[in-house]
Amino acid sequence: MYPNWILQRAYLTPTRAALTFGNNSWTFDQIKEISLNRAEQLAALGIQHKQRIALLGPSQPRLIFMMYGCMHLQCEMVMLNRKLSKAELEYQIQDAEVEVVLVDETDVDILPANIQKLTFSTIEESKGVKVDIAHDWPVDQTITIMYTSGTTGFPKGVRQTVGNHQSSALSSVLNIGLTEEDVWLCALPLFHISGFSILVRSLLYGNEVKLYEKFDKECAVQDIAEGRVTHMSVVAVILERILHGLEEKQLKASPKFKVMLPGGGPVPKKYLERAHQLGIAVCQTYGMTETSSQTATLSNKDALRKLGSVGKPLFFNQIKIDANEQGREGEILIRGPHVTPGYIGRFAEKSPTIDGWLHTGDIGYLDEEGYLYVVDRRSDLIISGGENIYPAEVENVLMGHDAIREAGVCGIEDEVWGQVPIAFIVLKSDISEEELQKYCLEKLAKYKIPKQFYVVQELPRNGSNKLMRRKLKDLL
Amino acid sequence: MYPNWILQRAYLTPTRAALTFGNNSWTFDQIKEISLNRAEQLAALGIQHKQRIALLGPSQPRLIFMMYGCMHLQCEMVMLNRKLSKAELEYQIQDAEVEVVLVDETDVDILPANIQKLTFSTIEESKGVKVDIAHDWPVDQTITIMYTSGTTGFPKGVRQTVGNHQSSALSSVLNIGLTEEDVWLCALPLFHISGFSILVRSLLYGNEVKLYEKFDKECAVQDIAEGRVTHMSVVAVILERILHGLEEKQLKASPKFKVMLPGGGPVPKKYLERAHQLGIAVCQTYGMTETSSQTATLSNKDALRKLGSVGKPLFFNQIKIDANEQGREGEILIRGPHVTPGYIGRFAEKSPTIDGWLHTGDIGYLDEEGYLYVVDRRSDLIISGGENIYPAEVENVLMGHDAIREAGVCGIEDEVWGQVPIAFIVLKSDISEEELQKYCLEKLAKYKIPKQFYVVQELPRNGSNKLMRRKLKDLL
């Protein structure tokens, strides 16, 4: 059993700053009080202890309070991605067998019409009922469920337990250290593990989170230059904008700023060099939804010496390569207390691990010193501005259209987003690009829609007729 | 499964300083190599994988290398206290069913003659054999066994597992923070949890340990004043000597020195005030063998405001008082992943917990803010210079003498040691003080031997004839 993080943190450091948003600030004790109130309000509206619910809303304190209210009730929280299409959201809500979605008013229209909803205002304005709050949580209790795709093209709901989140936060602290003055800037979506893990760390570490609703270059540059924040998780495209902002204003990072943690794909060497010039330590990371955030991190010291590497595993994690020889490329396998125990819904029976090892589908190697290099992301994964796009998922949608016989999707490099998806299609009957776009908009999040469609006669396939996505680009 | 701490640390930060002793220093990689060699040598001499062995030796690097060699073999290490009498050591060795004691040559004479021994030199000089080293350890694997007494007077062998040690180190880091520059001064015995836990932290945190064979006031004062160390665990008597040493030389602690962690009994207010004057942050702690080190710690900020308190539990720990009302005194109960799963030997069947709660036998209360105050140590525990003395154990020994009918032991205040034991005896036949002293020396560690013997007609007993130790002092 582990203590309820929210109650324990409020007990240990009640008066410390926990959250800042714009001009408002909350201590851990205040957050406890508000979240306990939410729990009572949720209970009054029929939300049961340990019920699985979904959450949807912009990154604002009220979303956090709502999440913490759910955590007091030990609910399993399905974290909905605000960028998804109605069809995608419907799939997740059905797969998770969620009866009700707790939704910020501003996001009601994002949801399919037929879904049962409770708006944040309804909850916040209701009168609570007395409810028993667990003071401790079992290590295998599911806190969050986040959907991620894979080789099949069908998103899988990944369980992230008390033990997963905790060991992730603890492994990380052994790597980057901790002081009472630490303040994390959170400008990543809270529905992604990159954002949510910042909240978990705050509860465990007792440090402040400075929350942004959206990334704001001017504010971030100021916060970093003035030492208002000490840590920030980013994706490469955001890092570049911050570097650019500092350079533009001829500012440097404050010496109080400790580390920038980029995830979701490689950081170009020139960014690292510019960061170095601006006094920003960069620790590149490698992680995924199934590992509740970072599994490996490259220290700033090694940033240039081991360019292209994502570093070594964090303390409680193990990484091995499924290859015959040391130093050879193979599938990256991960083991540790941060690895998900499994999926929900249609993939509930599918084990994510074999003999305790998570098979990532990513290809990589370990150099002679044990540094990990990721050479190819799983399932030809496309990473666009930190969001994962699985070609199989986009192909499935395209092939669902009557006019399309075959589809192949791959990523191409993009100045702004790192990568963007493009599609190659074999037609059954004619279709206009506008029609295609409209069809995709109904079915897919915008960031997943191919930026270009190329009509071809046939797709490159191997002997067993399997699509060879890596050869798609040769058709250009 | 958790990684073998020694291998994982050497993999992650091979070149960082791990240990300093006098003018010698070792990196984590060097410690790994030496300890792997020890494991191979131990195996060559017949030590089996997972065998239970005992260790005895002064606090020197070679003892640490020997321990780590045993840890590679996943041996259960019974940590023998060098201050014990032969009779006490024999009891522990028999109770633990240890077949062989690994002993530093200098300590051979401390052991009973009939015990099977392997000296450190024999091991260090032998040729190793190839042996399989586990790369990960189960969470419930016993790392150490430390003997502690209690109400019965018979010492109990307490298991301390991978999970116990780990969660203790992790809880502590969430409380006091961590930076790469941290260096712990270790001048406490490695056979006690207070010393051994410094080694565990070093492996998990990746920080350096500066080891002293014995406490040395001059060196410690210099290390603290020059910022050569950042953390130190102490008992009150040692803290006072350091304060005195600094005052004598008109020195202050370096700003690099972060925190002094006193355990094993209360720190007098005047020490805290002097520490404050000298720039030393003091965080008083409360812990025991059964909780693998600290279970609660008072922050330096609260040191004077909450004088006499041992603070709040560490993050993963819970403390409650077995009393009817909030704020009332009662037995202190502890729960958390740091609590021992149980004992070995004659107490193997006795569970240390009830419904997951460790019943400490200590009496205390929580104030309205949740700060713990220990008002009476378990079983009238006497704490003398940081060593625990259980009256029942000493009484048992005294009553084992033909001339003694009854015995009662309690502690009195002492300028140097905090407390020292004294004894009240009812005689069957005459006996000289010299005879008594000689008899005790054979049976008891020196620090446990009563400083005074008072012959009385009868001992204070309650209605059910139970000795009332608290009334003993009234006989003076």
Q: What is shown here, in short?
A:
The structure is a homodimer of 476-residue chains. By secondary structure, chain A is α/β, with parallel strands linked by helices.
Description:
- Two copies of one chain form a homodimer.
- The model of chain A has no long low-confidence stretch (mean pLDDT 93).
- Chain A is α/β, with parallel strands linked by helices and 476 residues long.
- Chain A is 28% helix and 28% strand.
- In chain A, helix 8 packs across helix 9.
- In chain A, strands 15, 16, 17, 18, 19, 21, 22 and 23 form an eight-stranded antiparallel β-sheet that branches. A seven-stranded mixed β-sheet of chain A has the order 7-6-4-5-9-10-20, sandwiched between helices.
- Chains A, B: Residues 70-97 form a coiled coil.
- Chains A, B: Belongs to the ATP-dependent AMP-binding enzyme family. MenE subfamily.
- Chains A, B: Residues 393-466 form the AMP-binding enzyme C-terminal domain.
- Chains A, B: It comes from Ureibacillus xyleni.
Helix content of chain A: 25-40%
Rough outline of chain A: globular
Query: Quick one: biggest sheet of chain A?
Result: 8 strands, antiparallel
What is the number of beta strands of chain A?
Answer: 28
The overall average pLDDT of chain A, rounded, is: 93
CATH topology of the largest domain in chain A: Rossmann fold
Radius of gyration of chain A: 22 Å
The CATH H-level homologous superfamily of the largest domain in chain A:
ANL, N-terminal domain
Architecture (CATH level 2) name of the largest domain in chain A: 3-Layer(aba) Sandwich
pLDDT < 50 stretches of chain A: none
> Helix- and strand-based class of chain A?
alpha/beta
Coiled coil (chains A, B): 70-97
Keywords (chains A, B): ATP-binding, Coiled coil, Ligase, Menaquinone biosynthesis, Nucleotide-binding
EC number (chains A, B): 6.2.1.26
Domain AMP-dependent synthetase/ligase (chains A, B): 9-343
